[in-house]
Write a sequence for this structure.
């Protein structure tokens, strides 16, 4: 265990993307964690200074309702992270299960699930989310679940391919010969040995979930009770000509987070796939 | 069933077993004709039986269906047709009724020891999980002690330190020992060893063969020893079956098949095996061509295109295994039976 951690550490240091991504993520987590301490104002507090340009009092200016942009962005970090992580996590679990079952069981099960994967692949996620929001209201929870339920396709495809190749490996056959049931083999051998591309992909999924949530909020379909970056941009839309700072800093916050998760995802992808494939062989 | 008759029931009886794999692609012959619904006939009508505790060696070229046969015997693959009887009972029924109980009765040792165990599990976990699955040992402590004792008995010392180690930290020989002792832990009636030493260093092959031999003898386990190494197979086996294109072409007592082969294919196979006695210079029989693909098996005797003794009859007439007496069976028109 100690060895594994040590190895993980050296591998992380050897990959610049992962290193930078993790540092950026730490900053993001600190901001989210200590939001009430860092934020200069209550993000819901409406001051009398409407659409104030960045100044000493309001470092990033205020929006049309006189709210401090910096404080809104700091508190918005929490929303974005929660939405991104939850949606990607749901997608990761569903994708792993469906892909794993399809790839490992094969045959008719694979044929049916393969079609299901194709159907979901063609489904426009964003419009589905719009419909759900229109039907069931714009609660944050709804948005997260719907995003998770519609974006698992890439995970499922990856896991299916992994399971199909793992199924041919001797250790899966030997587990079968020793008497382990198919479900046990799936969860004990196939999923743990094939999960790495899913981990990398899920990290990327966090980024796209954050983008989707921001887009929804931008269209005015976000949860109005929760401050999010998309909402900040939406509130700045009508002040684009005389209040550029509202949209700009909101946008920058989104870009920062998306880049962070893409760096980590890409780094993990590079680090996990070739190295761990050798683990079974020498050294 | 009375006592005497029980004695005679073979522990494993294979009755006209076939294993066909339908192909997705069509197969084009070299003369341009096309087989639309191509089927790979990996095992095509194999019958034999093994008495309790005996060892049957199966030899043949690669691709002749030896490994497929092995997988059928432990029900990793389903027979397309035919039946396998374990101690007189239909294997398919046994498997359906109680999978775990069935797995305890037939076990398999695989060709590639480096990939036999999950790379993410320690050897201790692998052994203890197996015991837990089959309800061997009352608690984890007891299972741990059993695992240590088993490792020690296979010469893996100090056994305690092996428990925490992972498969990639072992040599192929060590892994194959662990594989054998894990299978024997379940006390199987039938053990299938699918080329258990072909991926190991020559220097440790004998050890592994001896371990297999002794542990199966100790528990009176019958074994099917699949190999393309004739010398090793002769050493370990009571009887030998020679396979060609999914069929058994010759079967008999190990020594008899090796020293006095009757089928032209067996003769050629054995004449090309140099190491039986280095002082004896034998003339190797050269077989033209390669074995045909199992998709497109020649009509009649499948060996005729390469057989030095083939006649016109061989091309048309399919042959059956003929009893030569003394439990020796040959499938050839040129060899006359009793």
């Amino acid at each position: 265990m100690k060895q594994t951690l040590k190895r993980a550490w050296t591998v992380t240091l050897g990959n610049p993307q992962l290193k930078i991504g993790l540092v950026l993520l730490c900053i993001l987590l600190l901001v989210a964690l200590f939001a009430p301490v860092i934020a200069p104002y209550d993000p819901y507090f409406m001051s009398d200074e409407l659409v104030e340009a960045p100044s000493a009092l309001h470092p990033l200016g205020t929006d049309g309702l006189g709210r401090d942009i910096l404080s809104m962005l700091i508190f918005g970090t929490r929303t974005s992270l929660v939405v991104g992580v939850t949606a990607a996590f749901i997608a990761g679990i569903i994708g792993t299960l469906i892909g794993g079952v399809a790839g490992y069981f094969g045959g008719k099960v694979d044929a049916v699930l393969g079609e299901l994967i194709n159907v979901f692949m063609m489904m426009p996620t964003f419009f589905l989310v719009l419909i759900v929001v229109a039907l069931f209201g714009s609660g944050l929870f709804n948005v997260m679940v719907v995003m998770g339920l519609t974006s698992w396709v890439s995970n499922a495809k990856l896991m299916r391919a992994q399971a199909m190749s793992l199924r041919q490996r001797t250790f899966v056959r030997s587990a079968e010969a020793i008497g382990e049931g198919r479900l046990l083999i799936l969860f004990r051998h196939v999923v743990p040995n094939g999960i790495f591309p899913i981990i990398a992909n899920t990290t990327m999924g966090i980024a796209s979930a954050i983008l989707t949530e921001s887009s929804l909020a931008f269209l005015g379909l976000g949860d109005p009770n929760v401050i999010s970056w998309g909402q900040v941009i939406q509130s700045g839309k009508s002040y684009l000509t005389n209040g550029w700072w509202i949209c700009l800093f909101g946008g920058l916050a989104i870009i920062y987070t998306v880049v962070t998760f893409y760096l980590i995802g890409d780094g993990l992808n590079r680090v996990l796939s070739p190295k761990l494939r050798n683990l079974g062989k020498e050294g | 069933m009375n006592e005497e008759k029980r004695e005679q029931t073979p522990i494993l009886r294979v009755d006209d077993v076939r294993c066909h794999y339908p192909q997705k692609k069509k197969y084009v012959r070299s003369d341009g004709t096309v087989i639309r619904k191509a089927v790979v006939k990996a095992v095509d009508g194999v019958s034999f039986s093994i008495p309790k505790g005996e060892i049957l060696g199966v030899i043949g070229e690669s691709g002749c269906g030896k490994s497929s046969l092995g997988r059928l015997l432990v029900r990793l693959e389903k027979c397309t047709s035919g039946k396998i009887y374990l101690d007189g009972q239909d294997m398919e029924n046994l498997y359906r009724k109680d999978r775990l109980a069935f797995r305890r009765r037939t076990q398999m040792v695989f060709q590639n020891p480096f990939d036999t165990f999950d790379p993410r599990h320690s050897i201790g976990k692998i052994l203890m999980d197996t015991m837990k699955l089959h309800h061997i040992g009352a608690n984890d402590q007891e299972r741990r002690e059993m695992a240590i004792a088993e490792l020690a008995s296979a010469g893996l010392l100090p056994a305690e330190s092996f428990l925490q180690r992972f498969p990639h930290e072992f040599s192929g020989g060590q892994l194959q020992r662990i594989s054998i002792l894990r299978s024997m832990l379940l006390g199987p009636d039938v053990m299938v060893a699918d080329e258990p030493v072909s991926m190991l260093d020559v220097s440790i092959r004998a050890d592994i063969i001896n371990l297999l031999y002794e542990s199966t003898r100790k528990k009176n386990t019958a074994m099917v020893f699949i190999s393309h190494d004739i010398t090793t197979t002769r050493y370990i086996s009571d009887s030998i079956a020679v396979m060609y294109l999914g069929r058994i072409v010759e079967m008999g007592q190990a020594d008899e098949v090796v020293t006095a082969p009757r089928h032209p294919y067996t003769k050629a196979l054995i004449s090309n095996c140099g190491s039986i006695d280095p002082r004896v210079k034998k003339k190797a029989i050269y077989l033209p061509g390669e074995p045909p693909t199992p998709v497109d098996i020649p009509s009649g005797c499948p060996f005729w295109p390469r057989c030095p003794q083939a006649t016109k009859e061989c091309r048309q007439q399919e042959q059956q295994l003929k009893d030569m007496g003394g439990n020796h069976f040959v499938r050839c028109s040129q060899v006359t039976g009793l």
